[in-house]
Design a protein that fits this description.
single chain, alpha/beta, Rossmann fold, 2 domains, 4-stranded parallel beta sheet, 11 helices, 8 strands, 47% helix, disordered N terminus
Amino acid sequence: MRRSPAALAATALAACAFLTACSDTDASADGTVDVLASFYPLQYVVEQVGGEHVTVSNLTPPAAEPHDLELSPAQVRGIGTADLVVYLSGLQAATDEAVSAQSPEHVVDSAEAAEADAADPHFWLEPTRLSMVGDAVAAELSAIDPDNAADYAAGAEALTATLDGLDEEFSEGLAQCEGATLVTSHEAFGYLADRYGLVQEGISGINPDAEPSPKRLRDVRAIVERDGVSTLFFERSLGPKVTQTLADDIGVSTALLDPLESRTDESRDYVDIMRANLEALTTGLACD
């Protein structure tokens, strides 16, 4: 069972009564908690939960491919000195190695918090799983900074409400699309497809760098023709080349579907980008 953010914060406060590690000295010199997030969706969660009490840095530069992240020596040292590190084990080898080597005192592994499948790390494209990370972040921030535990609990509750609302939008928007085939440039949308009754078919597999084999391209073509697929979805970071070539060959359209691994437009946040994804899906899928 999921515990509420308030209950998690209360547990952290009780622990802090007995642990000197929960003292105010854990906070940054400017009075905020210094948090490192390994890529954008986790940055979004920390910002929503921590609010004015946190300073968040993202290890993955804007528009960069998180899977290929390489860390500078300064970034590796920063993982050891940050008040809190929020990362996703299994997504970025460099971050996994740095967390293991530096052993930061306060860590949230979002894979554990979201109960993600080790074979597929892309849980953040399913909004209710991302809210589970918010609960874990609230608990850890409360352990570091107990004076503001109530604010962290409230931030997590507000985040959950926002993401639950987004989940409802997807459920309603895709209700007529149940069973539709979702053809994507790589298999980043498994959690989303499972949540909303779609069938994902990736041109490539989980690894976005893997080139599809000629056999896989023939298989996808057969799936498109069998299921009456009208749109193939590509990702900004990978570019449309392979997807567009296949679509042109079959005679169908293409559309952008953002896996939200990084953010290229600072004016749009996680919810904005997910809503754009919903619009692309409802427009491009073969729905009854």
